[in-house]
Design a protein that fits this description.
5-stranded antiparallel sheet, mainly beta, about 90 residues
Length: about 90
C-alpha cells in the first residue's frame, strides 16, 4: 500500500460486547461510521478492506483491517494509506 500508517490496539479485551456483536462486526461498523465503503469482507480470514472517499479534508484513504486472536483476546491491525500515491501529507 505504499506509504502507510500502521496502528495497533488491543480492543474488546473483556470478550464480546454486551450487545452480542463480535469484534469483526464492531470493526465493520466502525469503518461504516467513518464513511468507509467496504470492498472486501472476509469473515473467515477476519479481514476487511475499505475506501474512504475524497473530501475537503482528505484525498481519500484505503483502509485494511485485520483481526488476530481468539476468545476475547483480540488484536486489531489497521493500515491506512492515501488513495493518491503522490500525496506526502493528508
Amino acid at each position: 500500500m505504499g506509504r502507510e500508517q500502521v496502528a495497533t490496539r488491543s480492543l474488546w479485551g473483556g470478550g464480546y460486547s454486551s450487545r452480542g456483536r463480535t469484534p469483526f462486526r464492531l470493526s465493520e461498523e466502525a469503518l461504516i461510521l467513518i464513511g468507509g465503503h467496504i470492498s472486501v469482507r472476509d469473515e473467515a480470514a477476519r479481514r476487511l478492506e475499505a475506501t474512504i472517499p475524497f473530501s475537503f479534508k482528505s484525498f481519500g484513504e484505503r483502509v485494511q483491517v485485520e483481526l488476530l486472536g481468539v476468545d476475547g483476546d483480540v488484536l486489531v491491525l489497521v493500515k491506512s494509506a492515501s488513495r493518491m500515491p503522490t500525496t506526502l501529507a493528508d
